[in-house]
Amino acid sequence: MATKKSARAKANKLEAEQRVAEVEAAMIRRMSTGAIIRHFSARWGIRERQIERYMARVREQWDREGRDLAPRAREARRDQMRASLDDCYAQSMSRREVVKDSSGNPVLGPDGAPLTVARPDTRSAIAAARLLMDLDALSEEPPKQRVEHSGSIGAELEISEDSVEALKKALAGG
Prior knowledge:
- The protein contains six helices and two strands.
- The protein is flat and about 95 Å long.
- It has helices at residues 13-28, 33-44, 48-68, 71-93, 122-139, 161-172; strands at residues 96-98, 116-118.
């Protein structure tokens, strides 16, 4: 019985690791799952399911790193994610568009260069800003509890026997 050879070449270990790293970079840039699958399946000529496996490996790696990394390494990872989100925000806000006349030709400025206007991608910028706030909230230490009291510091607290008995009754439900 003859076996059919697949039209797709199976990636060797090194290629698979490189693919996982590229998928991870796309996930860090917050590309949608569908966009990641479309981009890489077209690029590498592989099926959707294989891209999903690569994404699962990235998530497993992130889970392992989250549990196993020392606090300093986790902080470095947060810094890396922050830089990526800062870059995403900056790109979203710095987007420009060429001004065109009614016939669709670019309008030229006095220097002969096409005129451009700011057309920020506010939806992406807001999403990046929200993720940055979430990331900052995760990296901050929880607020310290503050306890205040009145009276002199170091004074002994005196509780009468009647108060103790009343407290015992209240706790016992009687």
